[in-house]
Amino acid sequence: MKKIFILLLAGLTLAACSDASKSENTSDSDKSSSVSESAKSDSANDQVSLEEGLKEDSAEVDYEAIATGDVPANKKVKFTGTVFAIEEGQYGLKSDVKDSDEEVLWVDDLRLGERTEIPEGTLVTVYGSYTDMDEQNIPIMKAVFIDIKK
């Protein structure tokens, strides 16, 4: 009877030890996941403040101001237009789709944050910087954020 009691006691002791190590491992993984989630949250907050800061600092421009050279290169700008073409990381925008082919602005897609495909015919507001004209005198922008209008 003593032997059975000693074996039972030893079994309970071992079981208690294994449960304690499981709870320690669990708390360590909970701590690391908590730290990871906190880092993700901080990163998301930084992204939001960066986005808000850029949007507040951007001056709204129209096509005429860009085409006539009234907008200096590397100025933070905001442009609203409709996507009419998509080519290898660039979006072709027009402020009025029914207007002539001459009023085209090409946007290099350098977006930060979530990237979603933007289909042709979508009205968007682009936040970024005006770069310069290409070989055909078509204005080019670098888009850091693109808001889809609904």
Automatic annotation (TrEMBL):
Where in the sequence is the signal peptide annotated? 1-22
Keyword tags: Signal
- Identify the stretch(es) annotated as Disordered: 18-57
- According to the UniProt entry, which residue ranges have a biased composition of type Low complexity? 32-45
* Keyword Signal part of the UniProt annotation: yes
**This protein's name:** Bacterial OB-fold domain-containing protein
> Which organism is this entry from?
Sporosarcina aquimarina
